[in-house]
Design goal:
mainly alpha, 8 helices, 0% strand
């Protein structure tokens, strides 16, 4: 699947234009809107590949890209904020524990030990929650991209049926390998000042799209099955 994902953009007639625009958007991503547009593009990749369409989207219909990107941004932000909040609380407890411990009294030392232990536990919890967030976020993005409904990114019951499947874990790990491979190439290119760093952004975009394609193909097999078949009204049932 890794080879197939790396060939995903290469099968596009506009690969040069797509990678150029994607890299330039990442270059200007500190302005927020460009990064949202990249998320919009990723969402379109997720939806197309999940639906069996392996034709890479083009950077067009910018308003649609922006809308889809905003949804993706909200999902990513929420799943990132939870561990951050826990980590901030742990930091405050750690500072409070240090202040109490510096008092020198028995009660102060005991309070410092308790506070420090609690801060350590919360820091570990934040680490675990961040790993969970990294694992669930691709599924949440795929759910929103597939249905177009932001709420599906937080439908935890439906998402659990997805992320608990071995097929999703395999797809996630494969996508992670692609992203890490891209990061390794970026690191090597960054040895060259400025130009290497800029070139790395285009590699990063290529790897991100390849990883999104993997998640999309995986979503085809693991997406929650919904039924729109309604039970007919009694009046509509045929008489026996």
């Amino acid at each position: 699947m890794i080879t197939k994902s790396l060939e995903y953009l290469r099968d596009s007639d506009d690969i040069a234009v797509t990678v150029l625009i994607g890299g330039l958007l990442l270059l200007t991503s500190p302005l927020i809107v460009p990064s949202i547009l990249v998320l919009g593009y990723v969402s379109q990749v997720l939806r197309r590949t999940a639906d069996g369409d392996d034709t890479p989207p083009a950077f067009e219909a910018w308003s649609d890209l922006l809308v889809e990107g905003v949804k993706g941004f909200v999902v990513t932000l929420v799943y990132s904020l939870v561990p951050l909040v826990v980590l901030v609380v742990a930091a405050f407890l750690g500072v409070g524990a240090a202040i109490l411990g510096s008092g020198g009294s028995t009660g102060g030392v005991l309070g410092g030990v308790i506070g420090g232990t609690l801060a350590l536990v919360l820091a570990l919890a934040a680490f675990v929650v961040s790993l969970v967030g990294l694992y669930v976020t691709p599924a949440a993005l795929a759910a929103v991209a597939s249905s177009g409904r932001l709420g599906d990114g937080f439908a935890f019951g439906a998402l659990w049926t997805v992320v608990s499947k071995r097929a999703y874990a395999t797809g996630w790990l494969t996508a992670a390998v692609v992203v890490l491979g891209g990061a390794l190439v970026v690191g090597v290119l960054s040895v060259v000042p400025i130009l290497g760093t800029i070139a790395g952004l285009f590699v990063q975009f290529y790897a991100l799209v390849a990883a999104a394609a993997i998640i999309g193909w995986t979503w085809t097999d693991v997406r929650p099955v919904t039924s729109d078949t309604a039970e007919p009204d009694p009046a509509e049932r045929p008489a026996v």
